[in-house]
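Troubleshooting log. The previous structure file for this entry was overwritten by mistake, so regenerating from the original sequence record. Sequence copied from the archived sheet and checked twice against the printout by T.R.
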Amino acid sequence: MEIGTVRPVKIEEQMREAYLEYAMSDMVRSLPDVRDGLKPVHRRILYTMHELGLRPDGAFRKCAGIVGETLGKYHPHGEAPVYEALVRMAQPFTMRYPLVDGQGNFGSIDDDPPAAMRYTEARMTAIATEMLADIEKETVDFVDNYDGRLKEPTVLPTRLPNLLVNGASGIAVAMATNIPPHNLREIVDALIYLIDTPSATVDELCNIVLGPDFPTAGIVLGRDAIKHVYATGHGRILMRARAHIEEQRGERRQIVITELPYQVNKAALIQRIAMLVRDRRIEGIADLRDESDRQGIRVVVEVKREADARKVLNQLYKHTPMQSAFHVNMLAMVDGQPRVLTLKMALQHFIDYRKEVVIRRTRFELRKARERAHILEGLRIALDNLDEVISIIRSSRTTETAQANLIKRFRFSEEQARAILALELRRLVALERRKIEEEYEQLVKEIKRLEEILSSEKLVLAVIKQELQELREKYGDDRRTRLVDQEEFTEEDLVDDQEVLVTISTRGYIKRLPEEVYRSSRRGMKSALGIGSREEAVERLLLSNTHDTLVLFSNRGRAFRLKTTEVPDGTRQPRGVPLNTLIGLEAEERIIGGVSVRSFEDAEAVLLATRRGEVKRVTLTEFATTRASGAAAIALEPGDELVWAALSDGGAEILLATREGQAIRFSEQELRASGRGSGGVRGIRLEEGDVVVSGDLVIAGGEIVAVTVLGAGRRTPESDFPAQGRGGGGVRALRITAKTGPLVALRAVPPGDATLVVLTQNGEAERVFLGSIKSGGRAVAPAPLIEVGKGDAVTDVAYLGGPAELSPTNGPSTSSHSRSGSEVGEEEASPVSRDTRRRSQGSGSARVGAKPAAGQTSKAPGKTST
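Regenerated output below.
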């Protein structure tokens, strides 16, 4: 169209075309490319650093220089956005695998701005070099830069699946992208699996790529939401900060925040909490401080003494960015068009791109190998005819004449002839001639290998897999972000899964101790349990797990449900807390035992026994809805009380013992399951004045340990206690005398050695080893087990495991009270003691999963409490 010509157009069409051109231009600038996961500004910065030689083993360079080079050569825009993009690639709290190694102030998670670019320096990280590997081998297309002076790559030939491992975010016209970062190992494993199994489903890939892996770690809730995101390319992922509750002096607690959700500003979070406290939207916070340092994040929220730390933490999750959502929209440029990608599509696009890069690289290497082989073929001919070649060269007047004469005589190509003329005299020695031959032989093999790769897609994919595996080995690391199945977050997700010992004192204080504290303490059991006086004497011991739920039973026949994590940590709060602040105990009501439960859906039953010899069997699911306020577990007759509770798998044999030394053994099958509100049936017929004091589940092939109030004891094979029908008078388990005092506990222990702890009302706690206890039949009199002081009495016996902590000589001691505290502390637990304890734990008031007697069936053992 000539200048000055006026052509009428419709304004609607003109606006539409102009807007589409603008929109596409904006999308290219704002959305990442599916192949290398980069926007143009990031790509140009990395290419500029590559040209400047800023490799990870080289020197740093001022960021002002890098930004200037990028602006002058490839990105004619403002320096502020270019420096901002450079800074982002260097921030470890923004990028899962940073591409820039920064030196100086590059900002912080508190949203502190970076220093001016004239003060900071940078170079590429090692993993960034994988983004530019083989770029000089014609693996990607180059185009003119903005002024036509230089060439720049349209995409980087990356080996790193950067779009998924580092994620991306950006806003274009009418659309936006927000892709979360992932763990490199998981993405590589998924790529390899997809190469091997092209028909892989999203569910199969989700078994490998577990979910986002944020640089700031934290917790992601709900695997179903993650699967939805990967299947559709968009969705909402719920993130939470990682926090735990620490016990402090004076019965205080504090919430410690150690990890934040991705892209949450720590300083803004602290300010938000302070505002909520000021406005009284969150109650119970006494102090707030930031103790973060170079080692990591640590924000401390001190809770008032009267406040519930768990409730305060829940309020923080609800009202602050400690719980926030990451809205995923996996949008990227595919063949110049924006596309929403599923996980499989993103992985497949990267595989297709790597196939293209490998093929182009292989063609380049094949061409170079053939060119070099062609030169070497000429050199070999020249060396075989060296005298004639020298003669032709000497007889030629000019270089051009010599080149023409060589071509005419030996039919060399121009390249071969030029190489011969450039041959140095030192290459004529025998050793150098041999090197030429070896190089030629290696090139022939290399050419064959490269041709095979180009002729087989399977070999191309094998090359891709090998390079991915090398990437995984070199740069892969462990997952940082923890994934939780359930949407509703529980306190168990804030603590480690570990075995603990729960103690209840005579004054009603409860606490928990890590297993290693009481199993390997060098201070003796009394010190390990934190017993300092009669007022702090331990009345009940319960073995549990931090991820379990305790069902506690009181002497009044009521059941209380309590999370083990709700019990305070005794290493931080030695005294514990009053039990009645956690559960609804009434006046004069005390806990006689409990069971530790991981799942209430198991087909197990709770066995109960009362002081007057009544027994009852209740299905475990009956206690699934029990609250901390309590619910009836058994209906008691006036004057009766509950004395024993245990968890059974349905095939156990029950052993009940009375104060006067009688014992009865009968099958659990004689008890039919009944509801919580019903009473029991007769378990043992009692003589006048006698009462039931102890119960346990028989362990086949094990022994029965009897202990009296005055510290006398004896062990007897379980076969000496014959099975009878329920409701009988039983057999004489131990002859009671004034010297022994009444029976206080009858404990079933497994075959081999075992460790028991004898508790007294004055606060004594003595370890007793099975080998030190007198052995004999039921008629054999007991022998002194521990020394019981005047006015003191044994109150309970707890079984903690076995084969246990023997003396250094591996032989049994005569009695536990003869040991010093240091001797007890140096005892080493046998490798199988944990397994034995899990088969039968507790001090008798609750034994979970004890192995039934011979001839009875049992499923895998469960957990035990006392």
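The domain at 38-157 is CATH 3.90.199.10 (Topoisomerase II; domain 5). Archived copy saved in two places this time.
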